[in-house]
Amino acid sequence: MPTNTASVPAPNRLRIGSAPDSWGVWFPDDERQVPWERFLDEVAEAGYDWIELGPYGYLPTDAARLAEETGRRGLKVSAGTVFTALHRGPGVWDETWAHVSRVAELTRAMGAGHLVVIPAFWRDDRTGEPIEPPHLAPERFRDLTAGTERLARRVREEYGLDVVVHPHADTHIATEEHVTRFLDATDSSLVNLCLDTGHYAYCGGDSVRLIETYGERIGYLHLKQVDPAVLADVVRDGTPFGPAVRQGVMCEPPRGEPALEPVLAAAGKLDVDLFAIVEQDMYPCPPDRPLPIARRTRHYLRHCGA
């Protein structure tokens, strides 16, 4: 493990946390997921101070109750998360806002400052079957960028939260080409990026190069790695993301790619406060698997200076 941490951001600039995703949680309610009480107990036990809300409805949605449950475990909330299909145009706005406003209200009530926005999958998230073309036509791309700016403006005005868009496998913002096109087409005063190192590597991107090129647009980090051998099989076979996760494509650091030390060093050079939330997609997983991984990952990140 690395011992030279001089180029890695100081702890007061990088706030390390974890998320329900690292406990195999993808849905508000699923019998294959650990109960939310166990997640909160174990994420605190593993040494994390910050968490994300995860899928809305997994954790209690009553702010007073959630504040009591997190507070007595020494946990704080960094962000809420929403999925949106803004590329489908103004016709989806009302439905989108109804969901976003609920999540944003709880996020603000918990003292968090970010809303992570994930584009809708072009494949069904349970079956993996294609439901849309994988590439956006120009008019749909314009709907995506305009809708995201509209959403970010309203979220900031009404809830005081910053929108960070999360490039994600099997969505229309996934590859390096997608990401740079999206950033170039959106207002940096409204829309920034949640860089997920694992998803970006999954789709062929270089996280360090993205940070060095678009550093002013990096508003939030998800720390994650992919297993290159499994990824090679996934790419060869065209495997959808859900089955790829079940094959183990996302792996425990430092066993995969990208190497996190250079990512942390590049983030440190930005000289800004950043949340860095550990995620390891592994839905579904045995209930006793997440905690040991979470402990080891937190220990590893401390050795990286984070």
Write a concise synopsis of the structure shown.
By secondary structure, the chain is an alpha/beta fold. Helices cover about 40% and strands about 15% of the residues. An eight-stranded parallel beta barrel has the order 1-2-3-4-5-6-7-10, surrounded by four helices. A two-stranded antiparallel ribbon has the order 8-9.
Topology:
Blueprint: E1 14-18, H1 36-45, E2 50-52, H2 63-71, E3 76-84, H3 93-109, E4 114-119, H4 138-159, E5 162-165, H5 176-185, E6 191-196, H6 197-202, H7 207-213, E7 218-223, E8 225-226, H8 228-237, H9 241-246, E9 250-251, H10 260-269, E10 274-278, H11 290-303
Description:
This protein has 306 residues and is an alpha/beta fold. It has a single domain, classed as TIM Barrel. An eight-stranded parallel beta barrel has the order 1-2-3-4-5-6-7-10, surrounded by four helices. It has a two-stranded antiparallel ribbon with strand order 8-9. The N terminus is likely disordered. InterPro entries: IolE/XylAMocC-like, Xyl_isomerase-like_sf, Xyl_isomerase-like_TIM-brl. This is TIM barrel protein. Pfam families: AP_endonuc_2 (PF01261). It comes from Streptomyces chumphonensis.
